[in-house]
Amino acid sequence: MSARPASTRSGFAPTLRAVPTLLRIGFAGVVAYRSEMIVWILTTNMPLVMLALLRAVAAEGPVGRFDAARFTAYYFATLVVRLLTSAWVVWELVYEIRQGTLAAKLLRPLSPLVPYATDNLAALPIRGALVLPIALVGVLWAGPERFTHDPLSWLAFVVSVAAAWAVTFLVMLAIGTLSLRWESSLSIYDLWIAAYFVFSGYLLPLELFPPRVLAVVRWLPFRYLLSFPVEIALGALSRREILLGLGAQLGWLAASALLAHLIWRDGLRRFAAYGG
Amino acid sequence: MIRVRALRKHYQVHERPPGLAAALRSLLHRRYKTVAAVDGIDFDIAPGERVGFLGPNGAGKTTTLKMLAGLLHPTAGEASVLGFEPRRRDRELLRSIMLVTGQKQQLLWDLPPADTFELNRAIYDVPRAQFRRTLDELVHELDLGGLIEKPTRQLSLGERMKCELAAALVHGPKVLFLDEPTIGLDVTMQATVRRFVKAYNERTGATVILTSHYMEDVVALCPRVIVIDHGKLSWDGALDELVRGTRPEKRVALRLGAPASASQVAALGAKVIEHDDAHVVLQVEVAQLSGVLSRGLASLAVDDLTVEAAPLEDVLSDLFRRGRDERAARAEPAEPGA
After folding, report:
1. How far apart are CA A101 and CA A105, in angstroms?
2. What is the interface pTM, i.e. ipTM, of the complex?
3. Alpha-carbon distance A82 to nearest alpha carbon in chain B (angstroms)
């Protein structure tokens, strides 16, 4: 094989230079799809359904530590965290693999993972703007005293929401990439999201689970994708518990990054062997 | 610039007969066979050449193209593009090549093409001044004024293809892979795309490698063709030599001022391809051309005549048929003593 000419520019700096434009174009795309985004937010209403049910139950008397106002605070916080930590890369990736358009992205001097991430992140300003009134209603209805007043806890909340988004994105990326090997990777995502609904606290607060189930749930990643930031927002955790939780989130972040990396590498090898 | 030696790509393909029993058996025991998509090809392409990759469906053209672009890893052999091994996907190589496919678009569907151009500027790290200059040239040459600010979904297929080309070229690639770039376009737009690609190649010196089933694309763009059939190279050389070598006969088309009878036409001594009241088309050996023309002009009321090489479609059909016959002969050797 002929000698390879030396690369004249490093790979990391051009990637960083590209990110602001990628975010700006991603934001333009989100604006173009604004009506779909509003519909998606309106359909993410399960916490409000559960809130209605459990407020009716709590009218008879508190359920554990949960009275009606605490349920209100919990489910509004759940809705906000869910809306802020969602991603759609699994559908995007599976679609591009099936359509064969991933090949063109692999030919660029920039990993396709960067535009996938920036596209998903670019939705945050609009999501934030849409989530703000929901959060405001939640605070006013449940009462401000139902939420933490500790600035450090709110800082931890922001960090935990960012980590929850990153783990969600990476897991979606890993599952979507499996489509390079199996056609049924969306079925795997269906399994994942079913487990998420049950074990993340999306349907029911985790502390209402039986202790034995809860002991298992604490070793699963799902709590760190939703319930953990919600627990911080509600002031349900001590600073030590918050630090331990952030450490666990970091662990899940590293594990999901490794998993996504290994599956992506394997997928590209397979793609290079068999084509798209 | 592009060097290919003994390049092979073999796939393991899962095989199973139809039916439920076969489906159940395949769950326990999968049978595979090896398919040689590309089976040991060699060629070199110099900087600035325009080369057509031709071959029937499944011949190995796109597989070769994908190996040169680094999307597929060869099973064996060597490929080098601009001094890089494509499978390593060096950033510098990726900045210097581009693949345009007529069937798959890279334009952002709900945004104006200008946003895709800007996105590619960022991805390919093109300095702004150079981007502006290149884009101005592309907008002028492709007549994109007024198109690049409209959402892509509102553009016609032809307008989208022109914008696809512009998006592919904002970083000034040195090697351009075009995979069926004119598919589905009307004849005017096909001609526009061909004119643009040729002018771009002549202006920038970029190497162009084209696969197309439209022979007009190949005739207009590619002085050299590489024909791949069943994964093997069956021709590498000048297009006109391919035509002369495979179909040395000429096509003689006569426009008649008065109808000619079948016996009059037969008397010309050439194979009759078409014959009606107003036209006669003949296939004539080069050595007999002057005689046939003299007889035709003397015996028929000829208003106009043209002499052309055989159409490329016919030339390729002949080439592929010969390849099939040779493969069949190798597969069924003559019986001993026959």
Report:
1. 7
2. 0.82
3. 27
